[in-house]
Amino acid sequence: MISGERNQMMDTRTGFSDDIISGSSGVDSPLFPSDISSLNRLSETLESILLEPSNSFADAKIILSSGREVAVHRCILSGRSPFFKNKFSGEITGKGKNHNVKLSMKELGGDYEIGFESLVSVLKYLYSGKIKGLPTDVCVCVDEECSHEACRPAVDFMVEVMYAYHTFQIPDMAALWQSRLVYVLDKTSVDDILVILSVANTCGKSCKDLFTKCVDILVKSNVDFVTLERALPEQIVKQIIDLRFELGLDKPGSSSFPDKHIKRVHRALDSDDVELVTMLLREGHTSLDGSCALHYAVAYADAKTTTELLDLALADVNHRNSRGFTVLHIAAMRKEPSIIVSLLTKGARPVDRTPDGRKALQISKRLTRAVDYYKSTEEGKDCDKGRLCIEILEQAERRNPLLGEASASLAMAGDDLRVAMEIAQVDGTSEFTLESVYSQNLANAQRKVDLNDAPFLIKEEHLIVDAEAHQWIDTPEERELKKQKYLQVQETLNKAFNEDKEDLDKSYAISSSSSSTSGVVNPHTAPFTFQK
Length: 532
Hints:
The protein is an all-alpha fold. The protein has 24 helices and 3 strands. The protein has helices spanning 3-10, 33-51, 74-80, 82-87, 105-109, 116-128, 152-167, 171-184, 190-203, 208-219, 225-231, 234-246, 260-270, 274-282, 293-300, 303-311, 327-334, 337-345, 360-367, 370-375, 385-399, 414-426, 434-443, 476-518; strands at 60-63, 69-72, 101-104.
């Protein structure tokens, strides 16, 4: 790519790059300074209409999966996009009808989710005709050492925008964003390239160049067959494997391909059937480490299944797969706090690095948007899962404990952990630290806590939650509901504590009375012995 083309592609000030600057005859005509000024004012006016919908007579809404809404104008979108023209056909001129059309983003964009910022970026172009660069507030990760050219937040934004332009039938803009992605592919994590390739495949011919380069990178990479199979359609996996065979980079029957015994273990994990996994291991054809079963469970199975697999104590928690990744590296990629804590309490080493030099903490940081991380630290904001993962791993690195076998109290999560984590979210803080988890586990080594028998013993170690329980809700109604739930749980715990304390006092009083009548001295009240 020549520098002039790159500068034009990345210029955030380019305006009216399409037919809006052409004459009505279809022949380009020179623009005088006054014309450029007028077009810029028109562009700014149209963009302000999008940004201030309450004052601009918006007659439609696009609703995202998160529940956020974007007010739009059917006449503008229909004039700029064949896709919207077809969607709104017959509704624009209808008198007094359908003046508040609502379209879900899933209906517009299909199965691939387009985020709020990506959608607004595309709409800004459709309204103003201006081509803009990456918005720094949503394309920056938490890692301060990252250049932010190709970290996951930037990649996600570019992929979503490219897909939106493809969906809304704006081929020139889809091609522009395809070029931006092609430019950063060499700096992109190979796991992120799997995401890019999947979307490029969906976009078809409009992203042919991007598709070809992604396939070429994956063919020469060390990504294993299981990862390819889980992330990509079958025909693309076959294409990559066939190319590897042709180039002599792999061959049938190599360690890159799981045998039938390993596949059985993986299928059992897909069904969350740890008992079946144990039975398969007894056959002796493979082991948890040999099948990388723990890696597979951490990447794809339910968090509870991972905990049960860890409790078998048959796997090396620091074992590396064919790519040189430990289980903790995989857990950081999944961004699941409860799994990370379970691994750390079983002895996973946070200081271990991937072959390209990344620790689990850096992986987690580069997957997390800075805007989400810092927003969740503000008072009244729900704690982002990415931020939880980062804080847990930071504390683990500072402490770097050699715990050996930790106590099983963390594995007791269940519904009580969900309630506890919701309590932590009420005040917008994460009310546990890994430090407290470690210290409690050391103090309670080999001792299990029954939450039914000792409700007042629920402490910081229970403030973990699985993926399904982590619902980030911002509405005041839901926040108030969670606060009431917190107060009810707190009241229940206090009541249980007081009842236990009363029972203990009664037992002590009876014991003291019995001791005085029988002549036996209570050692708690008499530190030395009286002689008759």
